[in-house]
Amino acid sequence: MAEVGIFVGTIYGNALLVAEEAEAILSAQGHKVKVFEDPVLADWQYYRNHYALVVTSTTGQGDLPDSIAPLFHDIKEQVGYQPELHYGLIALGDSTYTHFCGAGKQFDALLQEQGAQRVGDVLTIDASEEPEPEAVSNPWVESWGARLQ
Ligand SMILES: Cc1cc2nc3c(=O)[nH]c(=O)nc-3n(C[C@H](O)[C@H](O)[C@H](O)COP(=O)(O)O)c2cc1C
Fold this sequence. Notes:
- The chain is built from five helices and six strands; from the N terminus they run βαβαβαβαββα.
- By secondary structure, the protein is of the alpha/beta class.
- It has a single domain (3-147), classed as Flavodoxin domain (Rossmann fold, 3-Layer(aba) Sandwich).
- Strands 1, 2, 3, 4, 5 and 6 form a six-stranded parallel beta sheet that branches.
- α4 links the parallel β4 (86-93) and β5 (117-118).
- α1 packs parallel to α5.
- It is globular, with a radius of gyration of 14 Å.
- The mean pLDDT is 98.
């Protein structure tokens, strides 16, 4: 059993839907899970010694949604190095935009710079190909959750 914090960045709710389905799957696997819709740094700090799952869409031109942008900036400015962190990353986007899944990619790049350990590959979900993002994310979450200790 692991503790997992799910950190959500969304504009229209697709990423939140993915996060809520992930919460159900991981809970059914026996993990202790909490979803943060407007995450702040204090929430993040707790999960540095557990697992963080970032689920974010992209807005603007490769930008982070307002719900998760403050967390990103606080991690960048105040955390620095976090090699103890284990995380997963689900990025929602649309490949008709220039910066496909730009927000999720920025988040992953930041955590990699800070020495964090990613569990599994980044999952990118393309809204132009997949009308139901949870159909793609659910199997990914199932196997991601099975890797947690
Ligand atoms: C105004 C606007 C800007 C967007 N910009 C991007 C972008 O730069 N890159 C990308 O991959 N997707 C972009 N998207 C697509 C969204 O990330 C995608 O539709 C996603 O599924 C929305 O999820 P959400 O409901 O959680 O916000 C944009 C969508 C809108 C409406």
